[in-house]
Amino acid sequence: MKKLRRLLLRTLLFTFAILLGLIGLQSLRFSSRQISLPAVEVLPVADRAVQRFAASVRIPTISHPDWVDSLAFEQLHAFLDSNFVDLHRELEHYRVNAFSRVYHWPGKNSQLRPILFLAHLDVVPVEESTRAEWQQPPFGGVEAEGFVWGRGTMDDKMNALGMLEAIQALLAEGYHPERSVYLAFGHDEEVGGAFGAQAIARRFRQQGIEFEYILDEGLLILEEALPGLAAPVTLIGTAEKGYLTLELQLAIEEGGHSSMPPTETAIGIMSSALHRLDTEPFPARIDGPTAELFRYVGPEMDQPYQALFANLWLFGGLLKKQLAAKPSTYATIRTTTAPTIISGGMTENLLPTRVTATVNFRILPGESMTSVTQGVRDLIADPRITVTPTESLANRDPSPVSSTSDFGFWVLQKTAREVFPHTVIAPALMVGGTDSRHYTGLAENVYRFSPVQVQHRDLPRIHGTNERLSVENYRGLIRFYAQLIRNSCK
Predict the structure, then answer these.
(1) How far apart (Å, rounded) are the C-alpha atoms in residues 98 and 70?
(2) Cα(139)–Cα(136) distance, integer angstroms
(3) What is the DSSP string of 304-361?
(4) pLDDT on residue 13
């Protein structure tokens, strides 16, 4: 018996030693993917650029689902025409569906595929009940405390105005790109982009234009992005999740008076189905853009986090639990389920025979609207409940995953390293949606990145109360776009 115990102990120690060796070996192989480059000479950004940005915020180009505030959009177009005179003289430009804009800066070498930068001119409305909470008027465009305040400062006038400022600065230097540069500004991104981005993309397809890469708004430079990582992370979105809304409908024969309820009620049956969806979510996966994120940030982390990310084969389950603890990271590892509407019943003493529930899903790359719909049917497993996709124009499969080894990602990484040398650059998954979905197929690689640095506590300002952007962030954004054009168009 003693010999057996000694043998078991030796086996355990030997196994443990092998395990430690494997962990150490994987950690040693976990090398940095950051490129080393000197910082570039800082592009001077005049105060006038900040003033123009603030003035654009004062024009309330609010999106509405069923109409366009033509007066506000015409005011913005007139503002752009009068404030970027040199740009409008040098670049080809035209409108699409009256309120969206396309710019074309022809390159010297027609053999090079052009690049396309996207932004949108519309903003979301401000809830009337929150107006008293704003430190500055939401459409005041006030510059105070080192920030420009107002709706659109973070989503998305910053990118549209910043691109124009960058090109105007390059024109003033006498710069002329080798490859063509396109800008496309939609006017209805916040309500789906059907008349803006979708129409622009259709025109590009009709013209047979193929782009080297496409860049849209998206992820940010995030401070304190992960524990064990001191540096901010420049997150470049290489994909975005899909979107699906399902309607669950239940009709039963038995209703009647609430004083004599049956063993099963319509509301009870539907509640049980929704409970199953809540308690048995789609499986968590660390793959695709999220796995790429960890490969890029892991080598830059302190121990023991570096070893953890280097050995996901062993610690993947632990990491999933950690990521699942926060909604912002939970959404990066699984298709999420969110019941949003439920209806049924007319009066307090009458049992309904019909109940309807609406459930929204954000689909992880690798899954699809078809697979999610079937998964919901299989999980509910109740033939009395029909599961049907809504006719929403927002429904879509996840985007293709863009490469981290092609020119587009390389030039974004290079530019970010030059302009934001204090950050770690990494690909990542975008959980929200952008206009870029309409441009699928016009370029092999589509990226989603807004070059501004924020803290976690600032994220609710996007679409929220006290939206603002620091003046220094806006200056850095302009410098990024100017350098990105230089790097892309040599």
Answers:
(1) 9
(2) 8
(3) THHHHHHTHHHHHHHHHHHHHTSHHHHTTTS-EEEEEEEEE-SSTTB--SEEEEEEEE
(4) 57
- 375: which residues sit within 8 A by CB, 6+ positions away? 282
Q: Is the pLDDT of residue 374 over 80?
A: yes
> What gap in Å lies between CA 434 and CA 250, rounded to an integer?
34
How much is the pLDDT for 329?
Answer: 86
Give me the torsion for CA of 321, 324, 328, 333, rounded to 10°: 90
Share of the chain above pLDDT 90, in %: 80
Average pLDDT over every residue of 231-245: 98
For the four alpha carbons of 450, 451, 457 and 461, in that order, the dihedral sign comes to negative
Name the amino acid, one letter, at 61: T
Looking at the chain, how many residues does it have?
A: 490
Half-sphere exposure of 369 (CA within 13 A, CB side): 18
Res. 305 pLDDT band, cuts 50 70 90: confident
Nearest to 469 by CA among 146, 212, 86, 211: 146
What are the DSSP calls for 189-257, one per residue?
A: GGGT-TTTHHHHHHHHHHHT--BS-EEEEEEEEETT-STT--S-EEEEEEEE-EEEEEEEEEE-S---B
Out of 25-29, 283-287, 291-295, 324-328, which region has the weakest mean confidence (pLDDT)? 25-29
> Residue 278 catalytic?
no
The token duo for 293 is 């994120």
Residues ≥6 apart with Cβ < 8 Å to 102: 93, 94, 95, 96, 182, 183, 184, 185, 200, 203
Distance CA 83, CA 164 (A): 10
- All residues at 6 or more sequence positions from 465 whose CB lies less than 8 Å from its CB, including other chains: 130, 133, 134
Domains of the chain: 47-235+400-488 (3.40.630.10), 240-389 (3.30.70.360)
Residue from 143, 165, 188, 189 carrying the catalytic annotation: 189
Q: Is 69 a catalytic residue?
A: no
Counting DSSP H helices and E strands in the chain, the numbers are: 14, 15
The pTM (predicted TM-score) of the whole model is 0.93
Percent of the chain with pLDDT over 70: 94
The tally of CA atoms less than 13 A away on the side-chain side of residue 259 is 0
442 near 481, Cβ under 8 Å?
no
| Phi, psi angle pair for 402, to nearest 5° | -80, 155
* pLDDT tens by residue, 18-52: 656 656 666 667 789 999 898 788 889 999 999 99
pLDDT at 262 (0 to 100): 82
Q: For residue 248, which amino acid is it?
A: L
Q: Residue 313: which pLDDT band, with cuts at 50, 70 and 90?
A: confident
Question: At 367, which amino acid appears?
Answer: E
